[in-house]
Description:
Helix content is 52%, strand content 23%. By secondary structure, the chain is α+β, with helices and mostly antiparallel strands. The protein has one domain (2-63). A three-stranded antiparallel β-sheet has the order 1-2-3, with helices on one face. A hairpin with a 4-residue loop joins strand 1 (18-20) and strand 2. The longest helix is centred in the last third of the chain and has 22 residues, at 42-63. The model has no long low-confidence stretch (mean pLDDT 76).
Amino acid sequence: MLVISCRVSLGNMKKKTMHDEFKNRFSFVEDEKSIALVSLTFKEVYQDQLKLKKENMAKKRVCM
């Protein structure tokens, strides 16, 4: 799903983007800096979701 999102977002940009199928990453140049977008592993996605869930729960406690 992440790769599809990147394709849509990068497709809307007026920049020349390249997809490296071997490394499964997208790259482009922004303000003379080379930027590469890489996919997250399943473990990284899971850890990120846990972190977001904890942050949302903490915010809800503060609001109450």
